[in-house]
Write a structure and sequence with these properties.
The protein has one domain. About 30% of the residues lie in helices and about 20% in strands. It has about 80 residues and is α+β, with helices and mostly antiparallel strands. A 3-stranded antiparallel β-sheet has the order 1-2-3, with helices on one face. The longest helix is centred in the N-terminal third of the chain and has 15 residues.
């Protein structure tokens, strides 16, 4: 995982807002239900929260957060 201080990561406003929203949903969700799934359709990308609200997003923004070590990607599911 990349160890870059949060303020040193060059995120645009939408990416920063997405990250903060995901943190809020994560914290408000019971530990055993903390998971997001990405749903990609012709209508756009949506993060589906196991418990909580879904979040409209763009896969590219998630890729940026993963690249800078702000999200973990688990392909085992």
């Amino acid at each position: 995982m990349v160890d870059i201080p949060f303020d040193a990561v060059d995120l645009d406003d939408e990416q920063r807002q997405l990250y903060m929203r995901m943190v809020e949903v994560h914290r408000d969700t019971p530990r055993d239900r903390r998971m997001f799934l990405l749903s990609q359709t012709f209508g756009g990308d949506t993060l589906v929260a196991a418990a909580g609200p879904n979040i409209k997003t763009a896969k590219y923004d998630l890729d940026v957060l993963i690249r800078f070590g702000r999200l973990m990607l688990d392909l085992s599911a």
